[in-house]
User: What shape does this take?
Amino acid sequence: MHACSFHGPKARQIYAIGKRRVEEFGGELPCDFDVVSSFRGVGPKCANLAMGIACPNHADLGISVDIHVHRVTNRWGLVQAPTPEKTMAALRDILPQKYWVKINALLVPFGKHICTGAAPRCSTCPVLEFCRQVGVTNHR
Assistant: This one.
């Protein structure tokens, strides 16, 4: 068992990203969404997270929305969006920019361990009283 899934390919991608960053950009991360997302293996979620950390005041900044952030914010009733991309757009309209990086760090572990996909652990949820439980039909 490893700490992450697909550790071998991920390690090779990280190495390739670092190498390209050094060769093409002098070791700096460019604050350009299109450039950052052009790195192999870097999609919108990862590009937004990297830019949110490295370029916090940049105009292209987005919210890093993966399946966990998407599921939790929709389940809470905070947004109503069919895809993570649409959730990101909806959150941009209602969430202050100072939370755009933090929301991913907070909700990914919450979505992995408490507000899980198939049968969320509502009985141990610390924010259950604020949750609308949208789409929850079976819980623990």
User: Anything to note?
Assistant: The mean pLDDT is 91.
